[in-house]
Amino acid sequence: MVRKDCPPNDATFSTLINSLCQNRLVEYATEVLGKMHKYGYKPDVVSYNTIISCLSEQGRADDALKLLNGMLCKPDTISFNAVFKGLCRAERWSDAAQLIGKMIKEDCPIIEMTFNILIDSLCQNGLVSDAIEVFEVMPKYRCTPDIVTYSSLINGFSEQGLDEVAFDLFRSMPCKADIFSYNAVMKGLCTAARWDGAGELIADMVRKECTPNEVTFNILINSLCQKGLVDRAIEVYEQIPKYGITPDIFTYNALINGFAEQGRFDDALKLLNTMCCEPDTISYNSVLKGLCRAER
Gene3D superfamilies per the record (predicted)? Predict the structure, then answer.
């Protein structure tokens, strides 16, 4: 382009940086960013955000933070949120709190997504009480909890075995439930072995026109198999096509492992040989484990 007197422009650099980051070549993207001034261009916030997001996704929170602090343009909420995600994933809660303070100091709006990143990360790390505290201060920043916020909290409660709390929150939330919130409740009900409740939840999903998906049934089937209720899991498995869903590798692996754990090797082998998807290493290992236990 340069040789033919057609110099690159902002779009050229943005496209290149974006493509490099999509292919996880963030070091090259950073080099391109550093060379833009040579052609008379200053990196814009979009280019910075692309690289910062890539660094955070790769677990390089310090590099993302360093780039944020060295930006030649004013960072926006997306810039801060990208770094925030990296800090939360690394469980660096103190640094995350300092970053929020920096956002406030620089008059950068804190939005629902900012809170959702923190709440989801806290819940994934079992810190549901802390997540609730964050949830309760959202109105102070003129942020309204959305379905993403509620789904994270419901999932957090379910993971902690607090199925009643999860269900109460689900029923009381002011926004319309989606597949993620339903599946989070399903997890709690199954953890508590409330099979009738799980069945009623699926019926409620159908009534509310929120069709169950593979994850919904896999949660139920896997939980039943873990509790030794493989025949009930098979009944659920046989109902899946009724909802326009095809069993996936996770469905089959849960059932095969369930059969193997009960010493039902013929059933496990039969299912392995009739799967409608390609078996993976877990599928074979589940059968192999059962056969070895039986000294076959």
Answer: Tetratricopeptide repeat domain
Which pair of tokens denotes residue 22?
Answer: 């999509």
Helices (H), the chain: 10-22, 26-35, 45-57, 61-69, 77-89, 93-105, 112-124, 128-137, 147-159, 163-172, 179-191, 195-207, 214-226, 230-239, 249-261, 265-273, 281-293
**Residues in contact with 234: Cβ distance below 8 Å, sequence separation at least 6, in sequence order:** 255
The backbone torsions φ and ψ at residue 238, rounded to the nearest 5 degrees and listed phi first, read: -70, -15
The amino acid sitting at 2 is V
Contact indicator for 224, 232 with CB cutoff of 8 Å: yes
Which residue is it, tokens 């292919």?
23
> How many whole angstroms separate alpha carbon 60 and alpha carbon 40?
29
Please write the tens of the pLDDT for every residue from 231-283. Answer: 999 999 999 999 999 999 999 999 999 999 888 888 888 999 999 889 999 99
Q: What is the pLDDT of residues 31-45, one digit of tens each?
A: 988 888 877 778 889
What domains appear along the chain, each with residue ranges and CATH number?
1-108 (1.25.40.10), 237-296 (no CATH)
Q: Within a 10 A sphere around the Cβ of 252, how many other Cβ atoms? A: 24
Q: List, in order, residues 6 or more apart from 30 with CB less than 8 Å away.
A: 51, 67
Q: Which two tokens stand for residue 249?
A: 């590798």
